[in-house]
Amino acid sequence: MAGALAGGSSPFRDGILEGKVAFIAGGTSGINLGIARRFAELGARVAVVGRNPEKAAAAAASIGEDALDFSADVRDFGAIRGVMEHVHARLGPLDIVVSGAAGNFLAPALGMSANAFKTVIDIDLNGTFNVFRGCHDLLAENASLIAITAGQAINAMQLQAHACAAKAGINQLVRVLALEWGPHVRVNGISPGPIADTEGMRRLAPDAATKQSHFERIAMKRWGEIGEVAECAVFLCSDAARYVTGTILDCDGGSGVGDATQRSVERGLA
Ligand code: NAP
Ligand code: COA
Questions:
Q1: Range of the domain at 233
Q2: DSSP β-ladder status, 185-192 and 45-50
Q3: Which atom of ligand 2 is nearest to the CA of 75?
Q4: Cys bridge to 124: 62, 166, 181, 228, which one at CB 3.0-4.6 A?
Q5: For ligand 2, what atom is nearest to the CA of residue 203?
Q6: What is the CATH number of the domain that holds 217?
Q7: Which ligand ends up closest to the CA of 120?
């Protein structure tokens, strides 16, 4: 099940999120759904939002009978604010808000129309502003906000002008909001590396050769699991992270640090 750890056990105790309300924008598939499931397993009451209502309903059903699902586009401030007000009315103040909706496709800058570039900026960066700006007066005391960013924020990548710009903007937005909204709201980001069984990697590494070349470059020599990102999210919204704000937590097997291929080591020693 996405969200559960395939290769190890969780250090977090059962019930650690009991009584918490968690709102996950983009929580209807992939990494964000894994985070939503893990929050629910640990006792949180969870609401997930995506554009496609059938997909959102299926996601909520997979989380558990108490999970709420909504259809809204994060590019539409009024729509996403309306959903958050509804969740607040049903479940109470929001303790945890995750902004994870994103869009991506591979294209050179010269292959992107102005609208193609704008579309990804609107979903990822403006969408994160809308989610965080929209939830502020609905938050519980000591709330934790988490943006899902990516290595593209730091490492320039060809065919990714839109996602690089959007995710870099998200990292700075996280830092600014941490400064403006402390001490009672913490704002952090998680930067996953390549994560197996996700739409993101189906789009960015569609063939076996690209996948293999990724493995060689990563210190951990594998892609990550959805459950491993979910554990980082639990950490950030738990009391263990009560003095952590304005940070981006890399859950990337070391891929952001640099190229870990054996070949580079050998070249360096020669
Ligand atoms: P995914 O399965 O495609 O999840 C995207 C989610 O966002 C879906 O629930 C989708 O539902 C929703 N969404 C998309 N556009 C939306 C919009 N305009 N308004 C509201 N909801 C919207 O993607 P994923 O691969 O798991 O990635 C999840 C997050 O992790 C993203 O922020 C991504 O940038 C980040 N990330 C992923 C990887 C990776 O390896 N996959 C690596 C680094 C970072 P609908 O389509 O129904 O709207
Ligand atoms: N290459 C170049 N341009 C592309 C493209 C591609 N592969 N895919 C879409 N575009 C362009 C479109 O042509 C359009 O530009 P135009 O109006 O000038 O023709 C623009 O991007 C918007 O496309 P549209 O399909 O109308 O956007 P949408 O809002 O329906 O969907 C996307 C947004 C394009 C990001 C879509 O891929 C999506 O919904 N993604 C969500 C899932 C996802 O990406 N998951 C991985 C997360 S890391």
A1: 21-269
A2: unpaired
A3: 29
A4: 166
A5: 46
A6: 3.40.50.720
A7: 2
CA distance linking residue 80 with residue 74, whole number of Å: 6
198 lines ligand 1 (CB under 6 A): yes
The residue contributing the CA closest to ligand 2 atom 28 is 119
Mutation to probe ligand 1, out of 198, 204, 228 (largest number of atoms < 8 A from CB): 198
Phi and psi of 265, rounded to 5°?
A: -65, -45
DSSP lists the bridge partners of residue 186 as 144
Q: Is residue 12 part of a domain?
A: no
List the residue whose alpha carbon is closest to atom 8 of ligand 1. Answer: 26
Q: Which residue has the tokens 């995750």?
A: 98
Alpha carbon of 33 to ligand 1 centroid (Å): 9
Total structural domains within the chain: 1
d(CA 106, CA 103): 11
